[in-house]
Design brief:
The protein is mostly helical.
Length: about 240
């Protein structure tokens, strides 16, 4: 009559294979939220960048309008003063008014230079905003595609995990209760790797050298033998 370990080895191997697949699928599943969060973070980063550039453009446009308004006010003031020249009666007052007009015109000359420079800044900012909008549209499209893929993968992995767990329960249920409980205890501690082959004279999982007596007991197969170091169920691979 086959020994318990020999009789149930196929179910043990199948259970371990399923546990390994479950562990791998769970790792992938648990990584997805972080991946989606990173995608969202990258999108928000681009959105923030676009908002900052748009705000900068508005600030530059406001400063340009302020300079243009100031220039308009000074030009109006100059026209007003020009109109007053004909009413001046003394040379001293006439010279003073001309000096004031000259000073305003000098200010306007500087303002005009500043306005030209501000117009260049506004145009450059417009180009930067335009480019950033194109980039943001591209990043948004990429986000939607990758986030959709991640969501589908998450859904598929969830379904796969449910199926694997069901198969795993069925496989462990085929084992004698005591062996099933032992397997489950070890699998929980060892992340699904409850079995280990004997590799020469060592445990293939932890590389611990096995006592000759222990190796003989595994060969005889009259009882389940676990590694004295890592506690995994030992067996010889045929």
């Amino acid at each position: 009559m086959p020994s318990p370990i020999t009789q149930n080895l196929d179910s043990l191997k199948k259970s371990q294979k399923l546990d390994s697949e479950i562990h791998h699928a769970r790792m992938l599943f648990e990584e997805i939220p972080a991946q989606r969060a990173q995608l969202k973070f990258d999108l928000e980063l681009e959105k923030t960048r676009l908002n900052e550039l748009e705000k900068s453009l508005k600030d530059l446009q406001l400063k340009l309008k302020e300079k243009e308004l100031e220039l308009s006010q000074k030009e109006t003031q100059i026209k007003k003063l020009d109109g007053q020249l004909s009413q001046i009666k003394t040379n001293k007052e006439y010279a003073a008014l001309q000096q004031e007009i000259a000073s305003l015109k000098a200010d306007n000359s500087l303002l005009e230079e500043g306005i030209l420079y501000a117009m260049d800044e506004v145009e450059a900012a417009r180009d930067e905003v335009r480019n950033e909008k194109e980039k943001f549209a591209s990043v948004t499209k990429t986000f939607q595609e990758k986030d959709g893929e991640a969501a589908n993968q998450e859904k598929d992995l969830q379904a796969r995990l449910a199926d694997l767990k069901k198969q795993r329960e069925e496989s462990v249920a085929q084992l004698p209760p005591e062996l099933g409980e032992l397997y489950n205890r070890i699998a929980v501690k060892k992340q699904g790797l409850a079995l280990a082959t004997v590799n020469g004279e060592s445990c293939s999982a932890c590389q611990m050298q096995l006592r000759p007596q222990l190796i003989n007991e595994i060969r005889i197969g009259e009882q389940i033998i676990v590694c004295e170091n890592c506690s995994r169920i030992l067996y010889f691979e045929n």
